[in-house]
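Annual report, structural modelling task.

Input specification for the adenosine-5'-diphosphate complex:
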Amino acid sequence: MSAGAATGARPGPITLSTPAKLLKGVGPVRAEALKRLGVFTAGDLLFHIPHRYEDASTISPISSIETGMDATIVGRVISKGVIPTRKGLRIFQAVVKDETGMIEVSWPGQPFLDRSISKGDVLLITGTVRFFHGRQLQPREYVNLGDDEEGTDSGRVLAVYPATEGLSFKVIRGLIDAHLDGLIALVEEYLPPDLLRVAAVLPLAESLRLVHRPQSLAEAARGRERLAFEELLFVHLLRRRAHILAREKREGIAFENRRDLTSKLKASLPFPLTGAQTRAVREIVMDMVSPHRMHRLLQGDVGSGKTIVALFAALLAIENGYQSALMAPTELLAEQHASTVRRLLEPLGITPVLVTGSLTGKERREADARLRSGEPLLAIGTHALVQQRTAFGRLGFVAVDEQHRFGVEQRKALGAKGDRPDVLLLSATPIPRSLALTLYGDLDVSVLDERPPGRLPVTTALRPESARERVLQFIDREVEHGRQAYVVYPVIDESEKTDMKAATTMYSALAAGPFARRRVALLHGRIASEERDTIMRQFRDGEIDVLVATTVIEVGIDVANATVMLVEHPERFGLSQLHQLRGRVGRGADASYCILLGDVSPEAAERLSVFVGNDDGFEIARADLRLRGMGDLFGERQSGIATFRVADPLRDERLSDVAHEAATSVLEKDPELEQPEHAAMRRVLGERYERSLELFRVG
Ligand code: ADP
Ligand code: MG
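The model returned the following structure:
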């Protein structure tokens, strides 16, 4: 009697969509566990790829590891047991041995491991080596390789798979190994050959073989690269397509590129535009002449010259007979923009209209009347621009400076002041382009990745607590020479829980002691905004020498005479935030300094060294992202990045750029993926991403 007759059913030939439970070696229990790993079909199993690899170059011989090291070892359990401690904690301990020696491994609070780890098992363990009655390894992660020798042979690369309760690594590896050849034989390439060529990645079948059975770490990386590329490509295709559809639906004003005022501005500027500025202006003009409404993010490092780019856009609207508005988060910033713009537009005979809360009643009524009249003009202001009383007769373009300082509602409210004006958001938090595309999928993005020439770098250093007195004396000397300084603290008040220095107490201490002879002021977020503006104005006008503050000063204020930025408890700030703070100095012709003061842990010092040694905001943002993770920087909700299984948009930034370009050019040629060479890709897209159903006519 054959097996088939015994079960009463003959399974058909295996395909990639065969349910996993029909695979040899998978019973109902394993099938359930596989589902928890997202493996429902034979094809899913093939795409269950290792999350890391170990080989001779990553695995240390046990005899070689020393206290303090972070190490990965592979060894056999020669004894084990649970030991209680006096405090009631139970520790699972094992002694693990390889050809070179043995070491004790200890899992505090995990006595249950006694059931899953047996004497004779081979374990792969990563952890830190401590000294505790001799060397001891404290595991961060371990994989039970079972009782076979495989994987311990030197020279062989070990693929480590995500496992789950009830389905050990060993079983997963066994299953994949058993079915790999059969399943790979069923795989058909779905990416068009020219895309593989452009991205320089391998065909699918070969890549899958390499990720599951690499001969070297380099092979594994080659295989992974293809899978990461296809994932990035698919995500970019979906985003791009969604984006195009949204844009097509967005009616707007089709401006005419008259080159009247814009050419005049260009001719009268005291400097040439940087290449990046020229590119951004061109992108914006293209948007504005199209009949679709512009939704564009302009991002660039502090000092990259975003204001002028926005000004070109504003003039394009004005020369078409429309009104433009530029909104800034603080009065001071609005005033600063107004005075810059007044200077630049003087030769053109245009004066900006300032709209803030501190206009007199008469001034405000006059401003309101001009906005309402619909005459072409540039309004510059604060959120006063979106107040109910403010009405524009013919608003055609709006720009929002330091856009992250405004809520979504306020940004929208400004756009709603006109009949679908074009919108430009300015952001000084530089995010790598491919990331910005992932984060702000519905916006077009222009990047100023080049700084105007000739600016002096800010001397930056981390100084220990013991240098406090010298640092304060240094600041005092700068003030003596007529310069000004910022001193920034992470918190407003001291709390009982920490011994962290706070702005209010340090303000009193500094004003009474080291800076007793100086004019010192305090600025933080709980001070009413009118008073904050007054203080900032005084600082701008040189009536205050030392400004003790929290990060409220982070926003783009320009006091050329300020030459020192002192940051206390620097470990409490993100690197990008420190970079923004540093951007407050170095705005004039004088040498400027950014000093981080405090005794920080070695880890914090290492992190801060990225900031100290680097003045490129994009690089710093990248490092920040790598160190703190997306969620931390952008809030969990915005970081839809978790959708990636293989790719890592940070590590794979170059690949992501290539994928983005590929996606863009594919959709240019074939917007709905209808051409035969894209049929296979479209099918897979439809299978993998639910969203594709609404975006392409798939399936
Ligand atoms: P941010 O991007 O930080 O908002 P700004 O627009 O305030 O930068 O510009 C910073 C400074 O650089 C301003 O003083 C501005 O006049 C100057 N600037 C802008 N573009 C150029 C350029 N192409 N060449 C020289 N200086 C420039
Ligand atoms: Mg700015």
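The chain has 25 helices and 20 strands.
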